[in-house]
Structure formats: structure tokens, C-alpha cells
């Protein structure tokens, strides 16, 4: 049996702790413990957060010291942890840092079935006591467990869809066996590696492919049969101690086989899903290996289409089938609640435009197109930007199909907002004269629609505002007169465009 959240609360180091939210997580297994202290979700922190390989099933320790008075930021952190498959959070020093746990924080923890544990308010409590206690309890459970097949599959079933992957299962097996695992195809090409200790995947991959795994290491091999799809080879490596027992090897094979049967009915789709993850996580070695399986030229990938919205998990198969007439083997999958498709501009503008129209068929969803991405590092940076700012950009531009440059511009204005009132006032200054006038709001709204939404067309502007075309022309002439500027020409209209963008973002609460 696993160490569950319920059993965790009975440990000596948690005496006096209270589960204040997330009761539905009580029976969830706890596989590890980690500490989170950066907390504040800035753009840099977002990139760090996305770079972390979350195992799922962790309990997180924090005091929210950096965001102790910001319940909205606390909610954002909990949402992120829950999305990454974490089980819950142990909050220390309530009353010292966080004055009290807000109802907003409790509500989101309940909604996400995320265990929120309030530790006793004792200032002398140490993280290390709980870490030691939890790790020892996990180890005891693993030692006495007669079988881990069902346990690991149950843990996987509780993870978000985006984390139910071969990589995650291999990491769980790695931690359980204290061994490195290599999954390869019948030709001996590596599909996936999880190394113990963590972080040695590239070294292990080179040794495996060169056939030079040290003879002093214990190497166990087994074949994983997949009905209708041939087979995969599993290699388990232990650098010290003995190899796996026959039972351990059999359970490892069974775990992977059942996972592939249940969650990856088509091996090719599983590999494509792993390739999408490798590209977005900028894992170059893994990406090249997976691409070789399907003879995909990763270097030619310079375009990314990202779809955001509701119900994408259910729509993924439909999207794949719609893509088939245009792309023989689309590199597309669901990643962190978005459908991500990778393309090469060499496919031609007609294909790219057709695919764009296909993905934008549902008006309730948001499509962001990123072109001319020079490498996978740029791909990853673009995806993080889309994830953080695309929803606001859609509201700013009032449309559901955006290019990456649109999102980049909104992100730039968000960075200006963060600099404070002086910077904001400087950007807004071209509108100051208009805003002070009695008719200022009407004139500014007209100019905003004209420059931001109507491609500088008076006819489109009149339709948007519900007024006569001559009325729009009169107002624009009046604006030019007041500002002593030709609003049809740069650089005057560029400065006005910046000011109007800032005005709209502020109005949206950006």
C-alpha cells in the first residue's frame, strides 16, 4: 500500500497539522516531497517552473513567504502545482508569514482536489523534520510492498492528462527501483530514458547506443510485447549493488505493458506525443532520437500553431483526422491544456493557410500562429509566451486568430505596466490632450477602433461603432486638428497606436 495523504497526517512531524481543504485528495498516494520557496509567479519564474520535470504525486512544502499577503498569487501557485500533478501543499508558519489562509485559496484547493495542510503555528518547526519523516515513510511502504504494478497505474490515473506519459511512468519506476530505465524500439533506437540518479540521460543514451555500458553495471533486459505493434525493448541499469529480481523485472514489464495498452493504444501516437513534449521542453537529445523513429527532420520545423480553449482533449482525435489530407504524419498533441502542432514553412503557404483555417473552425477557441522560429529554444519561449499572455491578447485584439507578434506586443505592454506610473504616463501621453476634453472619450474610442480594430478603414470603423461613415471621418479630422498630427502616417500614428494599446490593456485590467 502507498503512503497516502491520510497516512501522512499521522506522521509524528505532522502532529497538530490540519487538512483545511482538498479532502478528496486524502486517499491519493504521496510519492515524494519537495520544497517551494520562490513562489511569486513572474515571467522568469514561469520559465523556471516550466523547465522542472514534475514527477506527479509530490507533496510540496512552503511558507509562501514572498507572497504572504497576496491570495491571488497563492491561488496561481496552487493551480500550477495541481496542473503538474502534485498531491498537495503543507503550509508552514501561518500567522507569521501568511496571516491566515483565505477562503479563496481554500476554495480552489477544494475544487482541484488538492490537499491543503496547515501546519501548527510553531515558529520552531523545521522543514527537515517533515522531509525526513515523509521520505522514511515512503521508503518503508516501498520495501514492504509485494507488488507495485497496480499502485503505479493508480498514481498515473490520478495525474492530469498532459502528464500521463511514458516518461512519467519511467520516472516512477526509476524512483521505485533506484535504477535507470531505457526504452528502445526493435532496431535498438532509444525512445525514452529515465536515469538514476536524475540528469544523466544523455550520458546513458550515448553508452547504450555505442554498446559500451560498463560490464561492472548490472543490466537487465526484457521485451514488452504490444499487440499489433511489434515490441519494445526495456533495459534496466543499476550502477551499484545487484540487478533486479525476476519478480521486480516482471512487474516493471507488466507496468509498462499495461500503461501502453490503457493509455497509448497506438505506439506511434505515443512517440509523437513524446516528441511534442521533447520539443517544447527543449530536450535536444531526446528530440533527435524520437524524430529519427519517423524520419522527421526536426531542423525544418520553424512554425508552431497553438490552440487554446475548452474540451480540447476530446477534440484531439478529430483535429488529427482533419489534418491528414494535408500532412501525412502531423506532429500534434495535447500539451498543458493546449493543442500544439509543429510545421515547416517549406510545406508552402497554401498548406499553412489551410491548416490555419482548419484549426480556427471553432470560434470559441483561440489559435496562435508562430512563424520563423529559429530553433527549439525559440519554440519553447514562444509557447511559454502564448501560455501566459495569449488570452489577454485575444481580448485586446478582439479576435480569435493571432500571430505570435500580437502576443509579443501585448507582453511588451505588460512589462511597461510593471515598471510603474511614470512609464505608463509616458506611453499614454499622446492621448492626454484628447482625454482632457469634454468630447474626449468619444473621440478616443473612435480613434481606438480606427487604429486597433478596423485597419484604418472608416467604413469598418463606422460599422463597429454603429455610426455613419461621415461621422467617423468628421471625428478623425477633428482628432488630427486637436493633436496637430496626421493620424494616417507614421510616426504619429505609431505613437498613438502604442498609447491606445496601453489604454485598452488597462481597461481590461491587464
TrEMBL record:
Purine catabolism PurC-like domain mapped to chain residues: 8-138
PucR C-terminal helix-turn-helix domain sequence ranges: 443-500
Species annotation: Candidatus Aphodenecus pullistercoris
InterPro entries assigned to the protein according to its UniProt record, in alphabetical order: CdaR-like_regulators, PucR_C-HTH_dom, PucR_C-HTH_sf, PucR_dom
Protein name (record): PucR family transcriptional regulator ligand-binding domain-containing protein
